[in-house]
Amino acid sequence: MVTRRNFLKTAAMTSAGIAVGTMNPLNAASYSRVAGANRKVNIAYIGIGNRGEQIIDDFEKTGLVNVVALCDVDMGAKHTQKVMGRYPKAKQFKDFRVMFDKIANEFEAVAIATPDHSHFPITMLAMANGKHVYVEKPMARTFYEAELMMKAARKYPNVVTQVGNQGHSEANYFQFKAWQEAGIIKDVTSVVAHMNNPRRWHTWDTNIYKLPEAQPIPSTLDWMTWNCAVPYHDYNEKYHYGEWRCWYDFGMGALGDWGAHILDTVHEFLDLGLPYEINPVKLTGHNDYFFPTSSTIQFKFGPRGEMPACDITWYDGVDNLPPIPEGYGESALDPNIPASGAGEIKKTSLNPGKIVYSKDLIFKGASHGTTLSIIPESKARDMASKLPEVPKSPSNHFANFLLACTGVEKTRSPFEIHGPLSQVFSLGVMAQRLNTKFYFDSRTKQITNNAFANAMLTGIPPRKDWEQYYKI
Hints:
Layout: H1 4-20, H2 28-36, E1 41-46, H3 51-62, E2 65-71, H4 78-86, E3 91-93, H5 96-103, E4 109-112, H6 119-128, E5 132-135, H7 143-155, E6 161-163, H8 171-181, E7 188-195, H9 223-227, H10 253-262, H11 264-269, E8 277-284, E9 294-301, E10 310-316, E11 353-358, E12 362-365, E13 373-375, H12 377-383, H13 397-405, H14 415-434, E14 438-441, E15 446-447, H15 451-456
Parallel strand pairs: 1-2, 1-4, 2-3, 4-5, 5-6, 7-10
Antiparallel strand pairs: 7-11, 8-9, 8-14, 9-10, 11-12, 12-13, 14-15
Helix pairs in contact: 6-7, 7-14, 10-14
């Protein structure tokens, strides 16, 4: 990273060089990188409670933000007051659309930490206004929404995008890349991903036959805007404060929540793209409204260039553990996992992570930024001298986004990288909801054996006055 001292030194040397004609001045691109290294980005935060507060803290630690606006549908509630108190000069809004109408010229980037179903319209409005976008994962809830977001990123190439799978800027990312380039990770034929901790909906009645009854809307809450483009649901506490993650209409369950922290490097560096077959091998507690209490979902990916076909099998649910290879050893737990309203992720016999099977080696890894290790330990010792040095990350995920906004770096998880993975999760959720296997044609982006599933790629039409966000 360029420091102020380095910048002044470079500027002085450049000036001297111009004076005596002994060196060329900085070109425009170089100057942009130097000048942008310490420039603060004017930012608006959308969704400022709970997870929103956490990412606001992380952005603040970079020293690279100037907070212009705060927006949340529940401004004034207990979980938003702390952030409001920290930034008394920031302008406050309940409706993101009003914020863009009134002060869009005052900020250059947004950070979105709202429920999954609202990521899409906020992102599309921001990009149409030329604003850089940091959005929490999953970037979209439906296949079509992710498709449109990627299309918008191509239409607005000067807009910087970053999805909030923070491990993509940590050792997990750089190790996988280095090991693949060195030929340590090659010929991967199977990946097992697992997240077997308790989730919010695991104690709910799976005999549900209708949505929860209406309750009084809290006085501080703009519930109409909270619903966004999704057909209106009466307020119930089972939707609010993170409970939205449990419902097909609003969230993406354990797969959408944790998949991005477990499968991100596998998907990118193995160039997996989109699967040709999605099969819900096992669903326990299946119903029409919220996610199963346990799921085993298999995704089949075809050969890519010299890489062989590869299956990814996802396991969630407390009693739905995957088979463990001999010599697995202990299960790691990333110490940097953010706290959640669902409770801390506590170390168990098998913590969230993955097992990567190649023709010659087996690797195990945890979630987020945790690195892979070769198993069994005896094989790891044999391979130790052959492992390449792993470079350190030049910036964490939040600084990477802000430095990209000022032209210094490129984001590591932009929409063109994360978008197809988000679509994989959407296909998995569709398999959970329909409880049936289906086949997908990645060339036409159509499901070929199930008309209902194919229609679900687009999702339910948006609520009145929200259809505008689906036009590019």
